[in-house]
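#struct-pred

JT: dropping the chains for the assembly here, can someone run the whole complex?
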Amino acid sequence: MNPTQSSQNRSASFMLVMMLALAACIALGGVMVAQREVETRLARDRAPQRALANAMQTEARKLEQLYDEHLKRTGGLLTNVSRDSQAPRRLAENVEGIQRISWLYWKSASAETHLSLGFPPDPPLPEPTLETKHSGLPRSRVLLDPKIIFRDAGGKNEGWIDEPGKPFMFFVQQFGTTVILTIDRSAVEAAITRHFRDMLQSAFSSVAQLGGPDAVRDSSGHELKSTENLPNTQPDVLSPVVSRFGSWQIVSWDQREMRETYHLPTLVGSLALAVLVAVCGFGLSAQQRRAALLARQRVSFVNRVSHELRTPMTNILLNLDVIEESVPETATGRFGLVREEAGRLSRLIENVLTFSRQEEGRLTMQNTSSKPVEIVDGIVRQFEPALQRRGITLTRMHEGLKTEVMLDADALAQITANLLSNVEKYAPNGPVRVRTQQTETGFVLSVTDEGSGIAADDAGRIFEPFTRLDDRVQAGVSGAGLGLSIARELAQRMGGTLCLVNSEKGAAFELRLPLNQPTAR
Amino acid sequence: MTILLADDDPVTLESLAACLQPEGFRTLLACDGAEALELWRKHRPDLLCLDIMMPGIDGYEVCRRVRAQDAGVPVLFISAKSEEIDVVVGLRLGADDFVRKPFGKHELIARIGAALRRSQAVKSSTSGFQLGPLRVLPAELRAQRGDDSMDLTPREVSILKLLHERAGQVLSRDVLLDVCWGLEYMPESRTLDQHIAKLRKKIERESEEIIETVRGVGYRWRGQG
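RK: done, full complex below.
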């Protein structure tokens, strides 16, 4: 298998591997996308939780009633005590949560009086008042309706003022005097929470023995009591305990079971797509291999045909040489033409073979000990009759050494012949200079004509295979468009260069080759 | 000089012989490998030109068997096969050169001459004779003029040798044809003139006359001085 074949096979294999990898990714992605985790809840016995909630609710109501009675009794006493003595403070401090005592009067000239207990809150508590108009320093106040807090005005003896935007207050009225007790709801709630905490020490055991997870929380979410290892998720069951002062919750989680399942349409869709991509990969790879095989077979066919032409070509050339001396003088012109055409055909066969070898990656150089000057001279001699007939005057110059060096003689001959063939085709009726220069380290061949030259735009294209400049095709010049491409390829494989160089007129090609001296035999 | 030519294509074989004989080479023709080996054993030619693809014993095998018994005789492969591997195999078997088809007579003779020169240079020390400014080296099929070297065919060598041996004498056309071409060979009269013309082109410089034409008789080398 030659390098080109192996490169084509590698390319087809690489594409197949890529397509299979893509198919695998699609399949894997599809499986991942189709995968689902289904959670199943297993309901637990909730009777103990309900019982605990009921017990706590009953306890909360009992505590509320107890607290109401305390406030009612304390408020009643406060309507009769002196405002200036320490008595009101002592009475109030016996009851949890009283922040301020306010004395208001029904149809009396007595001024409203306020007594704050404990550390003053920030912002200050609004003062309850009946005064619609207030004089003195501006303070935060809350206007109360006498119809609610005075029996004479149609109100009740006592009760709660629990309205949005107003402090939490309890009033007790007696004989035209109403005592307003501003209550710190959170303090009462905290006291009830403490009570519940003590209560739960024994009451929670009925819930806990079921194994949980269960917990009792206050309104801020703090746990009063809980089983171990509470989940971070939202609870499944929530039993509230509500009172005027706050709320508590008995929270509970059910047992959960996780199960993996797949979304069938997604799974089937992705696997089908993966199979499709894999099949396409095999198809494309096979197609690529077939295309490469066809290309190889074409090149191989051209190679074989050109190869088969070599033996008859040799016989023609040899026999032309044999009969050369016996050709009558009247026919020497025709004979010369036949010989030149045979030479041209021979060069064409060589170019096609060289190109097909290059395409198959089998073009290699075979260095032998030879004299480059003589090789060039030999080719020049072959071309002389044809150049003369086209009105081309050839000047041959050489500078430097004429020694034997190691190089591929056939390649140098082919390059020289292709350059002179171009001159013959494109620079008729003018001079051509073939100049060679040989030093210890390099060999230069320059072929300069004075033909129509090559436009700057075309300079880059002329070394591409099968490239022929349009105007010249129209001008009826023949050729396969391989000569310069092959010449440059051969030059590069010999380690040198072949360039179109600047010239005042026409085209000038310069071949530069590095030289190795031959080793002694 | 005897050259053994082996090719399964009779046209090629005949064409090769037709090219080499006028240049003074004696040819032995074989159309397959077995015949080539038989002719080689019988005649021990000075050089072998072998095609690779031949029925029966191919060119490579002929070369291998010849090399096993004679390491010195030059062997040239003449083939339409020209891939690197073909050349490498041929050269590894001990061939001296690989001539790719298509080729012409002049290339073939040059390659044969080069192989013979290398072979002769190895075999013997350089010897020859002086012909004016030329040092003619018959064994190497070349002439030396200062640093310049020019290839000669056996026929050209024999012409120069005869001129040298009979320095100062006029050699008639018949003598030259009899000695250099052989009595049995009947070349046309023009053949001698063409050979002399080619030879002069090779060895003489501008306005120099080594081979003198004696009008109506023949040719002469005046000798030293």
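JT: nice. The first strand of chain B starts at residue 2 and ends at 6. The domain at 2-123 of chain B is CATH 3.40.50.2300 (Rossmann fold).
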